[in-house]
Amino acid sequence: xxxxxxxxxxxxxxxxxxxxxxxxxxxxxxxxxxxxxxxxxxxxxxxxxxxxxxxxxxxxxxxxxxxxxxxxxxxxxxxxxxxxxxxxxxxxxxxxxxxxxxxxxxxxxxxxxxxxxxxxxxxxxxxxxxxxxxxxxxxxxx
Length: 142
What we know:
mainly alpha
C-alpha cells in the first residue's frame, strides 16, 4: 500500500522551496538577514551581468572562505554553494563545484544557459525569502 506522500507529485516550485529551506537551516538573526540581502544582490547581479559572471564573482569572493565563518566572505560562500548545488542538479552538471558548473554551462548550448539563469533567479527568490523568515525566528527554525 502506498501512502499519500509517495503519490504526491512535486512541482518545480516545491522542489526549489524544499532545497532553499534546507540551505537556510540553522540560520537566524543578523547572519540570516545578511544572507537574504546577498541573495537579493546576487539576483540583481545576474540580471545585470548574467549567470556566468555572477557565479565567477561569487566564487572569487568566497575563495578560501569558510561558509561557517561570520562575515561577507562566509555568506558569499554559502550563497555560492547553495546556488551551485541547486544548478548542478538542475542542469545535469557534475556536482564537483562552481568551476565544473561554469565549464558545463559554457560548453552547453544557449538554451541550457538561459534555462539555468531562469532557474537561478527562481531559486534565489526562495533562498532570500526563507533566510528573511529565519532572521526573525529564534534558533533558526520557524
